[in-house]
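TICKET: design request
STATUS: open
ATTACHED STRUCTURE:
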C-alpha cells in the first residue's frame, strides 16, 4: 500500500466525502485517481465508514490510514478498549497480538511504554503511522513473530496482553483456547517468564468453565457487554496466584454502566417464590457470567425457578438488567391464552419454556411490538405461565 498516495489531500478529501456511501455502487464508477488502485480506495472508504461509531477517535483523526474492513470488524471498540486500560497499568506492556492497535492506544494512557507486536508487515506500518497521527508517542511498533520478539527483547514487562485469534482449521469445533493463535495454554509458562501479569481477551463464545480448565493462575474474569451484547471476556492471570477467582460483569448502555461482581465459588442462598409486583431480567453480561444464584442473594430477590433466571420482588430495586412491573399472570391454558393474547401487540420473551418465540406468536396470533412485554416461563411448581408486564425505565 502506497501511503504517500493515500495521504494526498485530494485523495483524503475523496475518502471523507464518500464515507457512508455504498461502495458497491461506487465501484461501478470510474476511478478518479489513476495513481492508486480503486479497490484500495474503496477499502479506505468502507473501513472509515465502519469506524464512525466504533472508533470515533480514528474516524475524527486527520490522515488516518485504515486496514481491511475485516480488521476493523474484529478490533476492540473504543468503549471496551478504554475499560481494559482501567484495569491494566504499570511501567511497561507488550501486546503480542497488536492488530489495529485500539487497545494499545488506550493502554498507552495508563502505562509508560507500550510495545505493539504485529506479524502482518503492512498492518504494523499502518498502525505505526496512525499512532503518530494520534500523538500516541510512547508506543513502539515491532513487526514479526511476537514470541521471537519477546525472546529477543528479553526483559521483564509489567503486563503482557494477548488477543488470540481462532485458527481457520478450528471452525466448527467447540471453542477452545488451544485452537487459537497463539496457543496460550501451551505458552502460558513461557509468557510468565517475561511478566508476572497477563491479560487475555477472548471471544464471548468461550465457555468460562472451559477457559478455567485450560488456564492456570486466573485471578479475575471480566465479562464486558455494550448495549447488552457481550463483546469480550477478559482473563487476568497473576503468576503463582491460587486464591478466589472473582468475576466482574459490566454492561455499557447509552444511559449508564451496569456492574455486578462476585466470587466464582461463593456460597449464595437462593429463595424461590411466585411472581410478585416486579420482574427482573439480568443483562447478558450477568447471564454469561453464570452468577444466577449470586445475583439473587446479593439483591435479596426471589427466583421464579431454578432454571428460569428471572427474578421478582415486592419492592423496586436498581437491578443490572431490565426491570418490569407485572400487570397480570396468565396460566398457560388454551382458554386463558386466547383471551389474553389473540391479536394483541406485545414483545415476547421465553425463559425456561418449551417453545420458541416464533411458534408462540404464530399459535396465539400475537403481533410484534408495542409497549407491553410478555415473559413465557416456568414457576417454582413447574407450572407454565405467561407474565404480562410494563417496562420500567430508570
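STATUS: resolved
RESOLUTION: sequence designed for all positions
ATTACHED SEQUENCE:
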Amino acid at each position: 500500500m502506497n501511503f504517500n498516495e493515500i495521504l494526498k489531500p485530494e485523495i483524503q478529501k475523496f475518502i471523507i466525502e464518500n464515507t457512508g456511501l455504498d461502495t458497491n455502487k461506487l465501484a461501478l464508477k470510474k476511478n478518479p485517481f489513476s495513481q492508486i488502485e480503486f479497490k484500495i480506495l474503496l477499502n479506505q472508504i468502507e473501513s472509515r465508514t465502519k469506524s464512525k461509531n466504533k472508533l470515533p477517535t480514528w474516524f475524527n483523526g486527520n490522515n488516518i490510514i485504515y486496514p481491511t474492513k475485516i480488521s476493523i470488524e474484529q478490533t476492540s471498540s473504543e468503549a471496551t478498549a478504554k475499560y481494559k486500560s482501567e484495569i491494566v497499568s504499570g511501567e511497561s506492556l507488550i501486546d503480542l497480538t497488536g492488530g489495529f492497535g485500539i487497545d494499545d492506544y488506550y493502554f498507552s494512557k495508563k502505562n509508560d511504554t507500550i510495545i505493539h507486536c504485529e506479524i502482518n508487515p503492512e498492518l504494523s506500518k499502518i498502525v505505526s503511522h496512525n499512532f503518530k497521527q494520534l500523538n500516541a508517542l510512547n508506543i513502539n511498533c515491532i513487526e514479526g513473530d511476537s514470541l521471537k520478539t519477546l525472546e529477543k527483547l528479553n526483559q521483564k514487562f509489567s503486563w503482557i496482553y494477548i488477543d488470540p485469534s481462532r485458527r481457520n482449521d478450528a471452525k466448527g469445533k467447540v471453542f477452545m483456547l488451544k485452537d487459537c493463535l497463539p496457543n496460550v495454554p501451551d505458552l502460558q509458562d513461557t509468557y510468565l517468564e517475561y511478566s508476572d501479569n497477563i491479560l487475555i481477551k477472548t471471544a464471548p463464545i468461550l465457555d468460562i468453565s472451559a477457559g478455567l480448565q485450560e488456564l492456570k493462575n486466573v485471578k479475575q474474569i471480566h465479562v464486558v457487554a455494550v448495549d447488552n451484547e457481550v463483546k469480550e471476556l477478559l482473563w487476568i492471570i497473576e503468576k503463582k496466584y491460587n486464591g478466589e477467582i472473582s468475576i466482574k460483569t459490566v454492561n455499557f448502555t447509552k444511559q449508564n454502566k451496569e456492574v455486578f461482581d462476585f466470587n466464582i465459588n461463593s456460597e449464595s442462598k437462593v429463595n424461590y417464590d411466585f411472581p410478585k409486583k416486579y420482574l427482573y431480567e439480568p443483562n447478558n453480561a450477568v447471564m454469561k457470567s453464570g452468577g444466577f444464584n449470586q445475583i439473587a442473594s446479593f439483591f435479596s430477590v426471589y427466583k421464579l425457578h431454578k432454571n428460569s433466571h428471572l427474578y421478582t420482588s415486592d419492592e423496586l430495586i436498581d437491578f443490572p438488567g431490565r426491570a418490569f412491573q407485572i400487570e397480570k399472570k396468565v396460566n398457560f391454558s388454551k382458554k386463558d391464552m386466547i383471551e389474553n393474547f389473540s391479536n394483541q401487540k406485545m414483545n415476547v420473551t421465553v425463559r425456561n419454556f418449551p417453545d420458541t418465540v416464533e411458534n408462540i406468536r404464530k399459535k396465539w396470533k400475537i403481533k410484534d411490538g408495542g409497549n407491553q412485554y410478555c415473559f413465557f416461563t416456568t414457576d417454582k411448581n413447574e407450572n407454565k405461565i405467561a407474565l404480562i408486564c410494563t417496562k420500567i425505565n430508570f
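CLOSING REMARK: The chain is about 30% helix and 30% strand. The first helix runs from residue 3 to 6.
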